[in-house]
Specification:
Methane Monooxygenase Hydroxylase, Chain G, domain 1; about 0% strand
Length: about 220
């Protein structure tokens, strides 16, 4: 009976890894679409979001099956309940990437030449997502805490990007102002993705230690 349960926990890990990969792909494609002004690439992000939504349902179903059909011990319960929380944040990461894609589609944007800081933010949050899921699968407490620390760096990157774009609006009071506002929104969505990756890492910490940040006195 335990062997079957462990096999299903292994399947849970595989599905979480796949969902995390889909989130990372959506982030990368959304940024690429923004940089190139590619509506086609943006539409791929929308499709990926739908696949992420389906993965959330599939993993939720597997978690409920594990809870109802097996008799998990406390450690297993933490692992399963953490997974249920994690997929909620991963689904929202898909939504945020989709929101960036919607900017390109709705505004019919052309190529934007200089998005180095937004590109750096995208790489940083994609790594946070990847590392947070890896830390869950490998039960790596140090790695999940590194993800939490990385969120401060992403917040600073967002503030720097926002300031630069606001200065650009002040200097160029024409059509570029609207574009700068859209880019601030895209950067904000990336910053929120970093927040969701941090939430995932906090649930990983709970799955390993039994202590969640919000429950500490």
């Amino acid at each position: 009976m335990r062997n079957k349960f462990d096999m299903q926990l292994g399947l849970l890990n595989e599905q979480l890894i796949h969902m995390g990969e889909l989130c990372e792909l959506a982030i990368n494609r959304a940024t690429k679409a923004l940089q190139k002004g590619s509506i086609e690439e943006a539409k791929h992000v929308i499709d990926a979001d739908q696949e992420i939504d389906q993965m959330e349902k599939d993993i939720e179903r597997l978690c409920l099956k594990l809870l109802l059909q097996q008799q998990p011990v406390a450690r297993d319960l933490r692992q399963i309940s953490a997974a249920l929380k994690m997929i909620t944040d991963m689904e929202r990461i898909g939504d945020q990437a989709s929101d960036i894609a919607e900017i390109i589609i709705s505004e019919k944007k052309s190529e934007v030449p200089d998005l180095k800081k937004i590109g750096a933010m995208s790489e940083a949050v994609a790594k946070m997502v990847r590392d947070s899921v890896t830390s869950y699968v490998e039960k790596d407490l140090e790695l999940c805490r590194k993800v939490m620390g990385a969120d401060d760096d992403v917040d600073l990157m967002f503030e720097d990007t926002k300031k630069e774009l606001i200065d650009s609006i002040a200097e160029n009071k024409g059509d570029q102002g609207k574009e700068a506002i859209d880019l601030i929104m895209a950067a904000k969505y990336l910053e929120r993705i970093g927040d969701h990756a941090t939430n995932i890492a906090e649930w990983v910490e709970f799955s390993i230690t039994g202590i969640h940040k919000d429950s500490q006195v």
